[in-house]
Automatic annotation (TrEMBL):
This is Hexosyltransferase. The lineage of its organism: Eukaryota, Metazoa, Chordata, Craniata, Vertebrata. Pathway: Protein modification; protein glycosylation. The keyword ATP-binding does not apply. It comes from Gymnodraco acuticeps (Antarctic dragonfish). Belongs to the glycosyltransferase 31 family. Residues 1-20 are annotated as: Disordered. GO terms for biological process: lipid metabolic process; protein O-linked glycosylation. The keyword Cytoplasm does not apply. Its EC number is 2.4.1.-.
Length: 354
């Protein structure tokens, strides 16, 4: 009982001390919270600048006039590619477009080490040479191998080409970031070697191709013979501003919110007047690393646009597997998940019906 009494006697002095202490604590807490608030504001600001480096600083990143800007190939940076450049073809002895001129040429961009994919295509849809009375040829285009075994890879490529004579190689470094260079070098090769072709298709190595359906489309009287490009056309495709997305583009590179329409790079076909027109537009448009979007930008320079395929089932991406026989009978090009699946689809497509 003594403790409470003693406590009561010290109530006045204790209250005063507690009041003083509370005041000190409140002032200290205020300063502490102020420091926390300032740190939080600073952290958020740094995060915003990191996530959106072009946000609020447009004038700082405005490109210099064309006459003053450094050529893109001098220092391409993360968003552009080194094109044009001092590139040349170091492997180019195919008889295609030299001793024989096909109606349709299929060009497959492939990595130097992709021999399994090349051999699979040679056994499947790349083996179809005469379709609906029209000659079809298949070629593979690639750049230089890299890595510790680059020399050995190059020697294997030379042996492979001696056997098949279907490789076209340029002396740029092969890689995903250089797909635009690979595409533009393909167009350069076409303009220089294949002026008598009717159509060319660029198609990735992991795609199923129904060659007969493609030739049927190109022979249709309603299919244009000039200024023609089709595939799975992306309309109103947004320019992605999230720097964590691999297709990120800051506003100082592309100010517009949308890309011009373009066909997805997995597979598209064009008439043979377009390669020269796209190459003519290239000096006016710095080449970004997203190759299919860049083609759309070059088409827009000429006031041109790709055309939707007659049916939306002709070009398929991210579809459900397995494909039915009815789908296989209508498709022109579709993504696959493996070499065995592509082989199986091709075998089934040859007799597939709805």
């Amino acid at each position: 009982m003594s403790a409470p009494q003693d406590g009561h006697r010290r109530t006045g002095a204790g209250s005063q001390r507690r009041g003083n202490t509370l005041t000190v604590l409140m002032e200290s807490s205020s300063r502490h919270f102020a420091h926390i608030f300032i740190c939080m504001v600073g952290a958020v600001t740094i995060l915003l600048v990191y996530l959106y480096p072009d946000w609020g600083f447009e004038s700082r990143h405005t490109p210099a006039p064309a006459s003053l800007a450094a050529p893109a190939w001098k220092d391409p940076g993360p968003y552009y590619v080194a094109y044009p450049g001092n590139y040349k073809f170091i492997m180019d002895d195919t008889p295609t477009c030299k001793t024989r001129t096909p109606f349709l040429l299929l060009v497959v961009p492939v990595a130097p080490g992709g021999v399994a994919a090349r051999d699979t295509i040679r056994r499947t849809w790349g083996s179809e040479k005469l379709v609906l009375g029209q000659r079809v040829e298949t070629l593979f285009i690639l750049g230089l191998p890299s890595g510790a075994d680059a020399k050995q890879q190059q020697e294997k490529l030379q042996l492979e080409n001696l056997q098949h004579q279907d490789l076209i190689q340029s002396n740029f470094k092969d890689g995903y970031h250089n797909l635009t260079i690979k595409t533009m070098m393909t167009l350069e090769w076409l303009v220089a070697r294949c002026d008598k072709l009717s159509y060319v298709m660029k198609i990735d190595a992991d795609m199923l191709l129904h060659v007969q359906n493609l030739v049927k489309l190109l022979l249709d009287p309603s299919t244009a013979k000039q200024n023609y490009m089709t595939g799975l056309v992306w309309w109103h495709s947004p320019v992605l501003r999230n720097p964590f997305n691999k297709f990120y583009m800051p506003r100082y590179v592309i100010a517009e919110p949308e890309y011009p329409p373009y066909p997805l790079g997995m597979a598209y076909v064009m008439s043979l007047d377009l390669p020269a027109k796209i190459l003519a537009a290239a000096p006016h448009i710095k080449p970004i690393f997203i190759e299919d979007a860049y083609l759309g930008m070059c088409l827009k320079h000429h006031g041109l646009s790709p055309t939707n395929a007659p049916e939306n089932t002709m070009f398929m991406v991210d579809h459900r597997h397995p494909l039915s026989d009815c789908s296989l009978s209508r498709v022109i090009a579709a993504t696959t998940t493996s070499i065995p699946q592509m082989t199986s689809y091709w075998e089934r497509s040859r007799g597939a019906k709805c």
